[in-house]
Specification:
Layout lengths: L3 H18 L3 H22 L3 E3 L11 H9 L3 E7 L5 E5 L6 E3 L5 E3 L3 E2 L9 E5 L2 E3 L4 E2 L5 H8 L6 E4 L5 E2 L13 E3 L4 E3 L6
Parallel strand pairs: 1-2, 1-7, 7-10, 8-11, 10-12
Antiparallel strand pairs: 2-3, 3-6, 4-5, 8-9, 12-13
Helix pairs in contact: 2-3
Length: 198
């Protein structure tokens, strides 16, 4: 049975998706370069040697430039692979990664597949989101993969969501399973919103 919160989220996701589709290629490229710079700085500040990130789709804030650069600098980058059972497998990014279309039409790596627990060793998680509010509550796209992953980790590292500036909102509708993030990275700012749960 649908709740009011689900309806609110569905309407908000539709609006955010539409807003992302209106961006021009030039706007996307500029945002991706700025995000790569900010993520590089975040990795350096945290001293992260092993991270997880996602391969951005066309409409998502770009992460591919950052992933390629991180791999070249010798950082171990795990990329998610969606599974039908709602869990995420992981593959180690390489410089010449081939990309295929995953379960939901999202780009996924083709490297050797590691199981869901591989992510437990990372120093930093960089994840997608539809929006994040100022208290650190994240709203994803409704499939729950990252909520499930973060919620099941014994020692969760800092988790940063990559979004556009207009997607940092004052307050988001939330459900019990929703997981907060440590902060967000947008083209213009890196915000610390809540403290990592160690």
């Amino acid at each position: 049975m649908s709740t009011d919160v689900e309806h609110q989220k569905r309407a908000l996701r539709a609006e955010l998706r539409e807003r992302r589709q209106l961006l021009s290629d030039a706007q996307r490229e500029t945002a991706a370069s700025a995000i790569a710079q900010r993520l590089d700085n975040l990795v350096e500040t945290l001293g992260a040697r092993s991270i997880s990130c996602f391969l951005s789709s066309t409409t998502e804030p770009g992460t591919r430039e950052f992933v390629t650069g991180a791999v070249r600098r010798g950082i171990r980058v795990l990329l998610p692979i969606t599974r039908a059972d709602g869990l995420l497998d992981w593959a180690v990014a390489t410089e010449d990664d081939d990309v295929v279309e995953g379960l939901f039409g999202l780009p996924e790596p083709t490297g050797e597949v590691l199981g869901p627990i591989a992510v437990n060793d990372v120093d930093l998680m960089i994840i997608p989101a539809a929006a994040v509010d100022r208290g650190g509550m994240r709203m994803g796209w409704g499939r729950g993969y990252f909520d499930k992953t973060i919620g099941s980790m014994e020692r969760c590292p800092p988790v940063y969501a990559v979004i556009y500036d207009s997607e940092v909102l004052d307050l988001l509708p939330r459900e019990v399973h929703d997981q907060p993030v440590t902060g967000v990275v947008t083209p213009t700012q890196t915000l610390l919103l809540s403290h990592p749960r160690h």
